[in-house]
């Protein structure tokens, strides 16, 4: 009996201790002070998504997509902005305001492609396979190419009956980082056509004519104009997500490898492998030099790719407080980690690991930041891989031969430009233009490999897969099955494109069948997750309590019975 | 047999045992106390939730007046120093809801007030503010109120200091107001000024904000953040109403409303209404003031926080739903994406599921994007997306896509319109001047005219440069069809007109449904096709868009390409266009936000001070002249407390029309039709459903079963189980179905549960090759040679729609759980839905206390029994 009692006592004591631990960590909210920022409309669709996502963590972030220049200016001047979002840094000559008096740091927040969204009807149908080279684009926005049947456009789109319609370039009326990035690309690459250099106010460019151009406020305004059926012939530059929102097509842009590509998440990721990031500590730390992106020889490169940035305070100035810093750091940390998961769905491209790492270190400089919580190992980002390479870029599909600059009129999509890794018909084909009505005929596969859906436009990670589904000729003769894991994620086309297991944790090489754990595999549910643990603890408590109440009388009874 | 128990045998053990007993009992007492106090806090909130619908409160000004002003005796013997008091004796203020509040619009109405004088805040108006109060306090102090940061436009409508925290000195001084050291703010380089500081609830030591050490003396909010109502006007009949945008601790931590820690500690939140009469704080009549003084010198002057005004306040205690930080950042999110129609409900469900360890993420994208993202498959693509119309089964190939209904809501035309009447004595409603319109009725034809810029005033330059017919009315307010349905508008000032009809950018099934509804009406279809209907012709810019027939149109065009140069801009300036004067909202919810803030976002004001000069925002409309309309969701309209239009068939319709109540939505759904995808139904606007709301939207979750991993499928099954269970109980608590949604019917819940069961079956016994490949090799499933033809799961025949769910008005849902289908209860339990969310701190403390008390009994009990037996 005593030994049994001893056991019970020990159990009870342990239970009490456990219970104490439970109550000392009540499921109380971390209180977060709301913060306010303004800036880039290019990045606004991503920022709005993150803002909505952190609400249930008790975080309120106000953001106005007033444009990069307004964001930089507001952050520099007043007390109202706790952070800014901008596609360009401070102090770019004739482009952005001078660096502010307050201490600040740049943190890259998301990557994306500046897309050329257009509205064009050919032979009575919305045209969705427009191909444009840089000089032609520069010519359109400089106002030297004025008709859609211009020989320069026609030469790049052989066999297309382009109408003699007026070209209406739609530009930003406000101070815009996308205007700055777009004009920088044209100035550096096609300076003979584009004479305005880098500018953030398009209307200040000498080529701007109110009679030819349309100037609209924000990406929303530019996309809103192009998306009007009545505005046939218009073409504007916006972040890809705005084209996805409205279901309008974007032009394929010629890269240095001679391929016309779309601003998909993977093409942008490939392109930005060549971005040079300033790693010297100082006021320009982490800013981008995109010269290498423009001339990248990779056939998958989308040349007008860039990063957008948060500008955050690093000192308690202009009304910034430690509680606000706590909020801002938690928000930016979410954006850099889990927030990146959502980038492809929205029409952006996730940041690579080196920029996330550098960004997280910058987050630690925000006054009031909870630095203990910042850990790249807990960062859940789809580009991370075990060997440090960018998974998204590594697995990006190669363009179709019909998207090569030398392709003839009437080229039939379906021949990959690179045999070992190919987009087959879906990836970059004619039918995948954003928003084209689904014309897919369903999968023709008889593959034993995978039952993927209808060939799924771009089988790359992320499904920025443009609007339509196309017939996915998943002809893979069981390679997917051979590779085993991972078949579910790719198209199964030759088993070449499987990237991630459906569990999202492992990456498998379809050639070797080798699977590796991603560095950023989601952490196990931490034990200190109050709610999950307490659910069981509470039931355990109730059980123990019942034992404690019922056991003594039962014991006594039984011992009495034994005696009698 | 030895009687001494083992733990008393040695001296040391005895000591230890004694100490343990003391500690144990001590802790037991402590936790009992905690349990009792926490329990007390909960009881109050429990009562609150039970009485959610009935939590409206009416307070008469004369009630308890003496407790605010010791010099007040009764209505006939008011405070001799306060000459305003006789003006307030009949005032009574009603607050529509005082329990379970959240970040929402709150309707405040009153009667028995003195009609407001002049324009703006001349005299006889109310000032409203949200405040906090400390533990045990009977109400807030002036320092605890969010006040004093009006926008420039609003401040310009008030008398001196009336919208501020400043206190008068000298002749104007309030005789009852203390102007001591804690009301004096000295700032370097400036004369010390007298004002009422703001104290934050989250800064009790006043270290950071408000007073002692704050160099700027800035309150932690500004005009964009504050929800203060600088002035609310009273109509000639003595009534008035205002929608106050309440703020939880999430938006305003410095007020702390709904912060569970503060609530437990006894802090409270309040709505304070300060009526202002015709006399200033020093007792002088405002309008006798020397009018050689600057602007508004004859307006009532002085801060409502000053003692003589403050003592006339009415205060109503508000109880907020505990704000959640139910989801932890950094937990791995399982992705979903899709229609905005589900966003608010998802957010609520997410918080309930987070607390059970399932963290789901959500990205708001258009329905079309949701459909293509689902088909894309692969990592990074969500395996579950939300949409109204299904994916065309002809394009899905072998993919196994399952659909589960998740929410029912509606598209509404919400509005914020101040009655802005001329002095016309024929107007039977003139007494209500300055109050809100709440009974707007619209026809499909009127909505079509708004959406097609067919009113001249909705085009750049009011039709001067546009091709719109010169015979068309200038605005909806002058349209005879509109006036036939809403006759009071004939007495509005001529210039009154809305900033068009605010609509969002992008392709959505919701927009598609609006056009389908417009086409379902014969007259509207004729109008859209270009015929003149009732003297109005469609704007030619819209005539060729095929609006009368194009069923694929899923956006709101803004097609008029006319531009205009305003008189204020130089000849060299660019002209503005439709998108500048009638810009898109970024979402339906953003449209509701623009309506409630009376700020459509139009940019037609040429600002030469900008570098370079550019068009800037025209700013918010001022109270008294607000006139905004937007197409938004029933949820967003409910959240912001906005009134919504009733829909009638045509101008001769004399009925009240159909409003988006839960009942009307449920009626409409009873007649829904099947789509090409099994299990998916949609509302057919061509079917005229008696009492049904035609813009009802049923939203589905679509799951690409084989493309999603088993981890995802598990989470999705949990989501659907919750959606079909507790997630349909209307209310404002986290986890409940937010206001503006109609609960799913029994058949829909059953369908959702059945899909959840399918997903679990797939995990247990995979059919998809992708899942078989990853599943552990089990002895029974040897190497299979049969081609794993993707077997579609058994498609469940849609059970006939059972009787409609209990009718409930959407604006005021029943908070008590609706009678759930029996299956739902079982399901919720099987899932373990309840434990955490509902095991309260009190219960936890109680368990602990009981345990501690039980421990010594356990040890001592048998000992005593034995000792007793021995002594026998």
Automatic annotation (TrEMBL), chain A:
The chain crosses the membrane at residues 536-557. Keywords: Membrane, Signal, Transmembrane, Transmembrane helix. It comes from the Bacteria. Residues 1-29 form the signal peptide. InterPro entries: PBP_domain, Phosphate-bind_PstS. The keyword Transmembrane helix applies. This is PBP domain-containing protein. It comes from Nocardioides panacihumi. Residues 439-451 have a biased composition (Low complexity). Residues 417-434 have a biased composition (Polar residues).
TrEMBL record, chain B:
Residues 773-784, 798-807 have a biased composition (Low complexity). Residues 765-807 are annotated as: Disordered. The keyword 4Fe-4S does not apply. Keywords: Membrane, Transmembrane, Transmembrane helix. The chain crosses the membrane at residues 845-865. The keyword Membrane applies. Residues 785-797 have a biased composition (Pro residues). It comes from the Bacteria. This is PBP domain-containing protein.
